[in-house]
Amino acid sequence: QVQLVESGGGLVQAGGSLRLSCAASGSIFSINTMGWYRQAPGKQRELVASITREGSTNYADSVKGRFTISRDSAKNTVYLQMNSLKPEDTAVYYCNAALLTVAGVYGNYWGRGTQVTVSS
Hints:
Layout lengths: L1 E6 L2 E4 L4 E9 L1 E12 L6 E6 L5 E3 L7 E6 L4 E6 L8 E11 L4 E5 L3 E6 L1
Parallel strand pairs: 2-11
Antiparallel strand pairs: 1-3, 3-8, 4-5, 4-9, 5-6, 7-8, 9-10, 9-11
């Protein structure tokens, strides 16, 4: 069993900051890429940012310069620091991890999501 649990969402005013965390636990052998996705009402889920095991990062154009992704591999945890938040950042944010389980199964795993609401 593998679990990804997000935390840190909430309500913030435009221009404010939030920090999301996602901890992976369970029968994990190794984690490759971890990332954050978001889904706003009526829209498709989109990639926000990702980070490889080696530390290479990738960001959506809409968040470049405002969001920073990082990870603590020893804790199987990924973070998303979100600054200068805008109302259009309002969405449910999901954590994702591409990982290999102890049983030898490789796959993508998702958290249940955490709501981020930015008021204008």
